[in-house]
Specification:
This protein is about 60% helix and about 10% strand. The protein is mostly helical. The protein has 2 domains: about 35-125, Arc Repressor Mutant, subunit A; about 130-180, no CATH class. Helix 2 packs across helix 4 (about 70-80), helix 2 crosses helix 6 and helix 3 (about 50-60) crosses helix 4 (about 70-80). It holds the Pfam family PadR. It comes from Dehalococcoides mccartyi.
Length: about 180
């Protein structure tokens, strides 16, 4: 607006402000407390260290979601505090094992665990493979856009940045229309 090549959105203080209200009530991947059920369910099959838990979750999401260590390790600590898992040091790694109390809790909460698993894993079945591939393609496009934007920004050409902002603004407007379609 005032000579900045990175601010060509007179209508909005930030390019995504117009969308913030749209996504306020969108559902999160994991609802509050869901992760503990999912992790216990993973550990009932075999003990694992935190990285293995993260990898198992990423596999179940077909690579479309990878939980951060900042979301997995606090839940493992909580489960340990609740005495649903124990940890032991093996070759410098903390291995988590479900306890009898954890198995009992998981059994008592079987219906809840099943609902969570159906919600999270249901879209990963064979009939949705084309859908998953389309999501991967979209994610690849976003990576390419990010990389290309970096190359454009390095050249310090304000006119190009403004052109890119205009292209992205139009794209975001079209995407919002798609999002709002019933």
């Amino acid at each position: 607006m005032f000579g900045s090549p990175f601010h060509n959105f007179e209508r909005h203080s930030h390019p995504f402000d117009r969308f913030s209200h749209s996504f306020e009530k969108r559902s999160r991947m994991f609802k509050r407390g869901d992760m503990k059920f999912v992790i216990l369910d993973l550990l009932k099959d075999k003990p694992a260290h935190g990285y293995e838990v993260t990898q198992s979750l990423e596999e179940r999401f077909h690579g479309l979601y990878s939980p951060s260590t900042g979301s997995v390790y606090p839940v493992l600590q909580l489960l340990e505090d609740m005495e649903y898992v124990t940890s032991s040091e093996v070759e410098g790694k903390k291995i988590y094992t479900i306890t009898d109390g954890g198995k009992k809790f998981l059994h008592e909460q079987e219906a809840t665990t099943q609902k969570i698993k159906e919600r999270l894993w249901g879209w990963g079945n064979a009939k949705n493979q084309e859908y998953l591939q389309n999501i991967r393609t979209t994610m690849n496009y976003l990576d390419e856009i990010r990389e290309l934007m970096g190359h454009i920004a390095v050249h310090n050409d304000p006119a190009k940045i403004i052109r890119v902002n205009n292209i992205l603004d139009k794209t975001l407007e079209e995407m919002e229309i798609v999002y709002r379609e019933k």
